[in-house]
Amino acid sequence: MIFMAGEGRVSNDRDDTIKAPDFLHWYTHQHTDEQKLNRHWFGKELKPKSLFSVRGIGIYEPMYNKNVCRPIGTGDWLIMLFHHPVRLDKHSKKPSSSAKTLIIWPPGEKQYFSWDKGGGKEKHSWMHVEGTWVTLQIEGNLLPISTPVILNDESVMINALQHLADEMVQPVSPDPVILQNLFQNWARSIARDIKTIDPKNNIPKALLETKHFLDKNFNKRIVLDELSGIANMSRSHLCHQFRFYFKTSISNYVTRKRMAIAQSLLFNIDMRLTQIAEILGYSDIYQFSKQFKKTFGVSPSQYRKQQK
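-> structure tokens emitted (308 positions)
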């Protein structure tokens, strides 16, 4: 068995021992050959409560270890595109998914993937990212989580990875707003690509209008009867359909949005907690603090101190 920093446990079958190059051990590596290999690990510690952080990027990296199995994931979001057919089911002897398969693993989720032909012959591209901005964009764009999906155009992923890598490795410090915008563009582009290849992924217009209303009025008291009128369906049917398509309840969706915005506002040290609570629609600071601590495990003031 081989252990690599940040990667978890990687197992090799006895008959498939292949010497992996040095750059697999989390060193920065750049290539400009025909394979366009480009790999960076930025050495950041895990900070799941951050707004957005890019921990590592790999483009067209060969797969050298036959079986990669991480029972508890990597602690961050791992987003991976396989350029060749891949085994995502350890019980299958043949590839379980075709080329251009994208999979998004959330923090703490079991990960398994394996090459089929032989070490170094098949390639994959990936990014390790973390923070509430990631969750907000993935869930907001209804991207499938822990579920393989086939892309129509893999350049959507490759171009986004390259832009993120370019911003991270430039001589001056990377701009966090640019990084957030790049990731948001990636999420929206992936969502559009998925809908193009599979129309069944389209969300009913009535539900999109309901979600848009919640996005604009997250700081107001949500009345289910009003939402029911917007969607033109009964309250019970709306709740069922919303959960089916958005994988969460209406109330949880609003709370998640409030908390994500709260994290962003807390970076502004000139803004008082009472102001933030008011902006988010809480009647007093105690309700806001209680929900924030329930969500993130620390109070708003403690969270603000951690970001300094």
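The mean pLDDT is 81.
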